[in-house]
Every structure is written in structure tokens, then in C-alpha cells.
Design a protein that fits this description.
single chain; mainly alpha; Rossmann fold; 7 domains; P-loop_NTPase
């Protein structure tokens, strides 16, 4: 509990919540219980106070000038309505207002960096820290994942994706009773139950205000003066400049962003000169299409600020608008280099952009505000210039991801995965551009995502590959689909429980044309599918091929993993095996991986050692599997964590407390359900059948047995070897208890249940067993 509190106090709430999740799972596995009320209370407090922003670390907002009435009004609306949208022109301060209201807790999903509607759900999932089930549509999975959460969700900058944002808000309204939504947008979401608040610009001085006291009372003037003083500490409103300052703020209509941009020029021009230049700029722009005058005033001051830049800095500004979110100086330089031609002084240009408030400096780099990014992209247009910059950005992202696939199962696996998750906005935009313009480049990007995918089972990454393949089929370009895209599709099928499809895609990959790292991963998938299907001879052959390919590619960790898989094949396939010797070999692999800082493989080898000792030394196996579970959590390997949880529960079911075993299996089933990994869900439910039968939950066991047998036919897993023997014994035990006719009837009922109903029924039965319900029969 103190660890959670310390992390929260250090403004690291996401890590604090991860500690709670790990503690909760550990208590369920080891003691069959829940965290204490005190720990649960701390967990709830952290949930109510966290303010993570997807794609960005927010600095604390300074006090808002002239917005106390608006803050009170919106706060009152959020108390009465579960969906409130703050609307207003660009640059009016909607985001600042929302973040000021968010200081008490919740989540912020910043949508300005998102270009595709499909990505909105993933951005919200990132902000709230939930995982989306693979077997649901993203929007359904989001509603389900947030159903029990409490807090306020800010959807910031919705106007360009208003339909997708409205869909998220509607799902939250319908499925998440303890979450309210605060949206910012230039237009309302237009959903039932929405309250709309129009945020107007700061009040400028009236035409009658000519005295220093009355002009200085205007919120727009107060903001102007504060921003000027940030650069010119001695600036004051005087009798000489009072009229000009008032005129500047009136001409800018009190739009805060306009006021701030104009204030940055006060070091070079007087208020009188500034007012004169703004008047000329407005005349130039007034002939355009009719728009809200406040839009014209903002556009005018942005256009004027842009016009004051040196020509090469204008080019730099336009190019930087391609970045969907934050970027650093190195990225800016690499982007300009990708565009070719003469290389402007990027450092000096960035400094000028920051100095003129056309670029915002952050702790880890730079960012264009949405209004300024839109202006930059408008300057680029929609033709060759925009494509050239977008292509350069995609190549830049690919160069950063290039070679990451070679870190699979190596010492750099975790850092490679973090690089992808830390730059998802850029990767998402790059993949979207590449799949429409450069399939080969799209393949390089997807290959770079493999380390992240292997740990997280990301639905978004596998979705990118499926979209690419679908589009290629529609345009007759299937032959040009990159091998990496086919491999990512194989990973998705493997997680989804479609083993025939996983095998088919992986076979295409190894047939030729793949990079070494992609081939290694494909061989691993083929080996895993073969093991699931009980084809141990094929599994052995694929493991050997993976080992050879990994050694040739210099992927030491992958070669060790292949060795470990060969040991598992021997353990599963050879009835005359020497399990202790296999365990010693697996333990040696773990030590070798640990010495090489290959943490992902080290913990997989601990799992493999435990698997070899399940029968020979259950206590030692349990300890090793506990290590593997913790290792999976520490490395972010959700796949390893899940398989280790299942094996650990199986030990408890055979030689420990059935109630603790039931709690562990329940935690494992929930884990796989949250991940949407049906391959492992069905395999783990085989062991649940056995436990329920032994615990006397015979009706539930018979129904679940029918569901499992039917699922094996659908998924292509098949029940082989010891699993087949065990399930045969379970069925016989149920027949002895209930009779053959009744077991057949119950199995037939289970066979037609949809898979969510199957898991729900299994979890309910496991809960009853773990709680020791008297007289429970599973009916």
C-alpha cells in the first residue's frame, strides 16, 4: 500500500494502479482472497485523482485569466449532466478550461494528434489504461473495460472526429454509470443527454474604455499584459499606449491564442504599430468566404505571425505541422533531411518559432497547438507538397522502428516495445499513409511493431495489418502485401483462437521474401500452433527451424527461446522423458538469458522449467511459475503472465486447495477474456472442467465440457495427448455421477452456448467453488 501511495504522490498514478492490479492477482492466486479494504480505499483514491493524458504529459495549467465565471458554470453543468461539451472557436481556451476542471481527477484523451476515427477508441483506452478485448469491436471493448470505473473523461479537440468522439461518449453514457464526459470541440457532439456550453472569447475593452483603469480591467488586456511581461518585465499600460493596447485586443476579439501570438511581437514593435499592422492584415483577409469574425481574427493573427517569419522558417513551420504530437529537435532535423534539398538551420528555426509562440516548448520536446498545426497543413495544401512531407514523416518513423524486430526476445525487447508505445501517434499516422502510398514502407513499420505486439497482444497493431491486407485485396495488390503484414495477421489469428489462419499466414511468410527477424517469428508461430494441435513432430521441426534462423540472424535470445520450446516439445511428447533433466536444461537457459540481460526469455525459461517439474516437483514448479508470473508483469509480457497463471492454477488444483485453485483459474479466465485471447482461454477451460468436476460442480462441469469440445473443433486446437486422457476421465466421472443421458444433454447445451456465456458461466462456477458455497452443484 505504501508503494502505491508513494508512486501516486510522485505523480506516477498509472504505475501505482499497476501495483494494485498485480497485488490483486497475486492474492487471488496464492490465497484466494481480495485486497484489504484499506488497500482498496487507496486504490479508489488514486483512480479518482489520476490525470494521465494519452500521448502527452501535461504540465499543471497556470491560473486562467478572466474565466472564473465560466469555470463555475461548466462545473455546475457537469454536476447535473453526464456529458458536457465546451464549444467555441479555435484558440478560445477550451482545452485550458477543461484541464483546469480536471485537476480533481479522471483521464484526458487528447484527440488533436489523431487523424482517423478508428483510432479514437484506442486513444481513450491508452488514456484510461485499459486493455481492449480482441474478440470485441473496439468500441464495445472500451465500454466493457470501463464499465466499473469512476471518474471524469475529457475528450479534448473532438471537432475533426466528432462522430467517433460522439460514439465514445454515447457508449460511456450507456455502459459506464460512474463516468462523466467533458468534451471540447468547435461543434457539439449532438448526442442525447448532452449539455453544451459555449466558451466565448475574453472580453476586450469597449469602445468607450479609454482610461488606464477601465482598459486594464478587461480580461483580454490582462492576458495581453501578462504575456508581454513574460518577455518584457517592465511593460505597463500607460497613457501613451492605453488606446493602442485596447485597440489590439478589440481587433483580436479577445481570442486568447490571438492575444498571446500578438503579445510575442511586442519586443519588436510598439502597441501602436501592432494595431496598425493588424488592421492591414484584416483588410487583406476580409475578402474570403464568410466565416465567424472571430475565426477571421484568429486566422489573421496566425497568418500575420507566419508572414513575419523568415522564408526558411516558414518552410520549417509547414514541415513540422506533419507531426501529430510532440517531437524533439532530432526528429525535426531528420524530417528536414528526409525532405532533401538544402538543410535550413533547424535549431535556429525552432528557436524563432518558439520565440514567436508558433511552437510550444515542452519538457521533452516541442508541439504545435492544434490551430497552428491546422494552419501549417493548410499551407502545405493537399497535393504534392503535403504528400512529400507525409512521406518524409513516414520514412522517419520507419527509420526509428527499423531493426526493432531483431530485438525480439533479446536484451532490447522491452525498450523496443516502449519505443513503439511511446510514439503511437506517429506510428499510427505513418502506417496509415504508407498503406495507401508505399506498401513496402508499411511492411517496415509493422515489422518494427513486432516486439510491442508480442508483449501486449495489441488489437490496434493487428488491426493495421488486417486493414492493409483487406485494402490490397480490394485493389488487386495482394501479391504486394509485405511479409511483415502477413506475420502480424498471423499473430492476430493466433491470439484470436483461429489457429488454421495463423498457420496459413505464417506458412506464407516462411515460404520466402521475409527478413530474418520476421522469418524467426513466423517459425515460432508455426511451432506454437503445432503444439496446440498436438502435432509434436511438426512442432519439433519448426522449433529447429526457428533456432537455425535465429542463430543465423544473430538473435541470441530467440535462439534460446527456440531451445526452450524444443524442451517443452520433449516434455509434452515423450512418455519416457526425463523431466528432471529437461528442467535442468531449461533452468540453464534461464540463467544464460539472465546473464545476457534477455529478461523476456529468462522468465519464459522459468515458466518452461516449471512446466517440466509439474509432476516431479510441484512445489518447486509452483515457485518457478510464480517467478514467471511476476516476470511477465515486470516486462509487460501479458502472454507469459497468462500461460503461467494457468499452469500455476493447475498445480493448486492437483495437489493444493481446490478453493484457491478456483480463485486462480478465475483470475486466469478474466485475464484471457480481457486480452481476448481465445486460444489460451479454451485450453485453460479444459483444466477448469476437471476442477469443477472434482469440486462437485458436476452440472457446470458437464456444460463446460460440451463447450470446450465444440470449441476445439472451431479453433483447430484439438484435444491431444494427456489433455485428451484427462478430459476422458472427467467425462467418465460425470457419467458416473449424472448418467450418460444427462451428461450428453448438458454437453449439448454447452456446445451451443456463445463463448462469452461460456466464460461467464465458468467464472460464476469458479467463484462459488472458491467461496465454498455449501451444496453447490453448478446448476
Amino acid at each position: 500500500m505504501r508503494h502505491m501511495q508513494a508512486l501516486a504522490a510522485a505523480n506516477r498514478p498509472t504505475e501505482a494502479l499497476a501495483v494494485y492490479r498485480a497485488l490483486s492477482a497475486r492474492l487471488a492466486e496464492q490465497l484466494g482472497t481480495d485486497p484489504t479494504p484499506e488497500v482498496s480505499r487507496v486504490h479508489l483514491e488514486i483512480l479518482q485523482q489520476r490525470v494521465p493524458v494519452a500521448g502527452r504529459t501535461r504540465e499543471r495549467m497556470p491560473g486562467l485569466i478572466g474565466r472564473s465565471a465560466e469555470l463555475s458554470a461548466v462545473r455546475a453543468l457537469t454536476a447535473r449532466h453526464r456529458v458536457v461539451t465546451v464549444v467555441g472557436v479555435g484558440g478560445v481556451g477550451k482545452t485550458s478550461l477543461a484541464l483546469a476542471l480536471q485537476r480533481g481527477g479522471g483521464w484526458v484523451a487528447e484527440l488533436a494528434a489523431v487523424d482517423q476515427g478508428d483510432a479514437v477508441v484506442h486513444r481513450v483506452a491508452e488514456a484510461t489504461g485499459v486493455h481492449l478485448r480482441r474478440d470485441r469491436s473496439p468500441i464495445e471493448a472500451l465500454g466493457e473495460a470501463l464499465a466499473d470505473s469512476t471518474g471524469q473523461l475529457v475528450l479534448d479537440n473532438c471537432e475533426h472526429l466528432v462522430e467517433a468522439a460522439a460514439q465514445v461518449a454515447s457508449v460511456v453514457l450507456r455502459q459506464c454509470p460512474r463516468i462523466n464526459v467533458l468534451a471540447t470541440s468547435r461543434v457539439p457532439l449532438r448526442i442525447a443527454g448532452e449539455a453544451v456550453f459555449e466558451l466565448k472569447p475574453l472580453a476586450p475593452p469597449s469602445l468607450d474604455d479609454r482610461e488606464i483603469a477601465t482598459v486594464g480591467h478587461s480580461p483580454a488586456v490582462q492576458l495581453f499584459v501578462e504575456r508581454v511581461r513574460a518577455r518584457e518585465p517592465g511593460f505597463m499600460i500607460t497613457a501613451d499606449n492605453c488606446t493602442a493596447v485596447a485597440e489590439v485586443c478589440r481587433r483580436l476579439d479577445g481570442v486568447p491564442l490571438s492575444v498571446e501570438l500578438a503579445a510575442t511581437r511586442m519586443h519588436a514593435v510598439s502597441p501602436e504599430a501592432l494595431a496598425e499592422r493588424l488592421q492591414w492584415r484584416f483588410r487583406v483577409l476580409s475578402g474570403g468566404r464568410a466565416t465567424d469574425p472571430r475565426h477571421r481574427s484568429l486566422h489573421a493573427v496566425v497568418d500575420w505571425s507566419y508572414a513575419l517569419l523568415e522564408p526558411e522558417v516558414q518552410v520549417l513551420f509547414e514541415a513540422l505541422s506533419v507531426f501529430p504530437g510532440a517531437f524533439d529537435l532530432t526528429a525535426a532535423e531528420q524530417l528536414i533531411a528526409e525532405l532533401g534539398g538544402s538543410l535550413p538551420d533547424v535549431v535556429a528555426g525552432v528557436a524563432e518559432l518558439v520565440d514567436s509562440s508558433m511552437l510550444t516548448s515542452e519538457r521533452n520536446g516541442y508541439r504545435l497547438l492544434e490551430t497552428l498545426r491546422d494552419f501549417g497543413r493548410e499551407r502545405l495544401g493537399h497535393g504534392g507538397a503535403r504528400d512529400a512531407v507525409s512521406g518524409a514523416h513516414a520514412r522517419l518513423v520507419a527509420s526509428r522502428l527499423g531493426g526493432l524486430a531483431r530485438h525480439l526476445w533479446g536484451s532490447g525487447h522491452q525498450s523496443a516495445a516502449r519505443l513503439v508505445t511511446g510514439s503511437l501517434d506517429d506510428v499510427r499516422q505513418a502506417v496509415d499513409w504508407a498503406r495507401h502510398h508505399d506498401l513496402e514502407l508499411a511492411g517496415e513499420l509493422l515489422a518494427g511493431c513486432l516486439p510491442c505486439l508480442e508483449l501486449t497482444m495489441s488489437t490496434e497493431i493487428t488491426g493495421w495489418a488486417r486493414d492493409l491486407i483487406r485494402d490490397a485485396e480490394l485493389t488487386g495488390e495482394s501479391a504486394q502485401v509485405p511479409r511483415a503484414a502477413q506475420l502480424v495477421a498471423a499473430c492476430g489469428a493466433r491470439f484470436d483462437g483461429d489457429l488454421p489462419a495463423a498457420h496459413r499466414w505464417a506458412e506464407v511468410v516462411v515460404a520466402g521474401g521475409a527478413t530474418a527477424a520476421v522469418e524467426v517469428h513466423a517459425e515460432m508461430i508455426l511451432a506454437e500452433v503445432a503444439m496446440f494441435q498436438g502435432n509434436m513432430e511438426s512442432a519439433r521441426r519448426y522449433c529447429q527451424a526457428m533456432r537455425t534462423a535465429a542463430a543465423k540472424a544473430g538473435m541470441h535470445g530467440a535462439a534460446l527461446l527456440a531451445e526452450g520450446c524444443l524442451l517443452l516439445v520433449e516434455e509434452y511428447a515423450n512418455p519416457r522423458r526425463d523431466s528432471l533433466e529437461l528442467a535442468r536444461a531449461a533452468s540453464a537457459l534461464a540463467d544464460e538469458a539472465g546473464a545476457a540481460n534477455e529478461d523476456v526469455v529468462e522468465f519464459w525459461a522459468r515458466y518452461m522449467t516449471g512446466e517440466c517439474l509439474l509432476d516431479e516437483d510441484p512445489a518447486r514448479a509452483a515457485a518457478l511459475l510464480d517467478e514467471a508470473i511476476e516476470g511477465g508483469r515486470s516486462t509487460g509480457d501479458r502472454y507469459l503472465e497468462g500461460v503461467s497463471m494457468v499452469s500455476r492454477a493447475s498445480i493448486e488444483a492437483r495437489v493444493g486447495d481446490p478453493r484457491r485453485a478456483a480463485a486462480m483459474f478465475k483470475a486466469a479466465s478474466v485475464h484471457w477474456q480481457e486480452a481476448g485471447n481465445w486460444t489460451h482461454q479454451w485450453v485453460s477451460l479444459r483444466s477448469v472442467c476437471e476442477l469443477l468436476a472434482r469440486a462437485g460442480a458436476v452440472v457446470a462441469a458437464a456444460r463446460l465440457l460440451g463447450a470446450v469440445v465444440a470449441a476445439d473443433g472451431h479453433t483447430g486446437t484439438g484435444v491431444q495427448g494427456e489433455d485428451a486422457v484427462r478430459l476422458g476421465l472427467v467425462k467418465q466421472e460425470l457419467v458416473d455421477r449424472l448418467g450418460a443421458v444427462e451428461v450428453a444433454r448438458l454437453m449439448a447445451l454447452g456446445a451451443v452456448m456463445d463463448r462469452d456465456t461460456v466464460v461467464r458461466a465458468a467464472v460464476e462456477a469458479l467463484t462459488a467453488v472458491s467461496e465454498g458455497s455449501e451444496g453447490f452443484s453448478g446448476g
